[in-house]
Amino acid sequence: MKKLKRSARLVEMTQYLLIRPHTLIPLTTFADRYNSAKSSISEDLAIIKEVFEEEGLGELQTLAGAAGGVQYIPKVTAAGALQFIHQLCRQLEQPERILPGGYLYMSDILGQPMILNEIGKLFASVFAKRDIDIVMTVETKGIPLAYATATYLNLPVVIVRRDSKVTEGSVVSINYVSGSNKRIQTMSLARRALKEESRVLIIDDFMRVGGTIQGMMDLLQEFKATVEGVGVFVESGEVEEHLVEDYISLAKLSVVDPKSRQIKVVPGTYFKESEIRGE
């Protein structure tokens, strides 16, 4: 790459880091890329690090030594997260979202890339320090959320299917009890999709009782995998007890009254976790 002015180099380096989260990049990579001395690269990274921290864009961590380098860790400030989730709650409270059976229509929100991007960054921020190998979800609405989260964690995604596909080869299937209607349902996962003893982050769009998430946990036992975290976009507050205890939700559906068309949505458990992390 041709030698750039410092201002141009700072812009290009920032973009390089932003699209490679949780990736250790040796200083020699930047030195060779911009035909610059390591001392100049270190000064540039110090500027980028300062801006990231001041603007709440994340952390730039530097590892010293021959095997060291720099890596970008996406983070969201508590104030920024609260503002975004309050905006989501207002959108979710629109009366026309109520569906028969007291369900909530969310597909339009989950179809907006900018919103998905922010949701993914929120989950990646809260789970950043956990040792995770892969992000898991169940088809279909949780898929974009899982990919958005995995993008910021720089991890692969595995999708649990309701029905096995011949194109996936040998599968592991289990029966589970749906928390909402108590029906026996089936979910499956291709044997090649997940290595044994993997550390998994489960992401889902909605949790009423938690039967589907508990089903994924049971399925993971067949792979000798461990659940390192559970992230839920919206949880229901209408149930007294969830089947899943350890989870992080962004929003909580506290009231849904089809007769009065009233919906009340409040911030979820994300902020309790933020307090634990001292943010």
Automatic annotation (TrEMBL):
Tagged with keyword Nucleotide-binding: no
Stated family: Belongs to the purine/pyrimidine phosphoribosyltransferase family. PurR subfamily.
Domain of life per record: Bacteria
UniProt xrefs under SUPFAM superfamilies: PRTase-like, Winged helix' DNA-binding domain
Residue stretches making up the Bacterial purine repressor N-terminal domain: 5-74
TM annotation in the entry: none
Alphabetized UniProt keyword annotations: DNA-binding, Transcription, Transcription regulation
Subunit structure, interactors included: Homodimer.
Residue ranges of every copy of the Phosphoribosyltransferase domain listed in the record: 108-251
A biological-process GO annotation: negative regulation of purine nucleobase metabolic process
The gene coding this protein: purR
Transcription regulation recorded as keyword: yes
One matching Pfam family: PuR_N
GO MF, one example: DNA binding
Name of the protein in question: Pur operon repressor
InterPro entries: PRTase-like, PRTase_dom, Pur/Pyrimidine_PRTase, PuR_N, PurR_Bsub, WH-like_DNA-bd_sf, WH_DNA-bd_sf
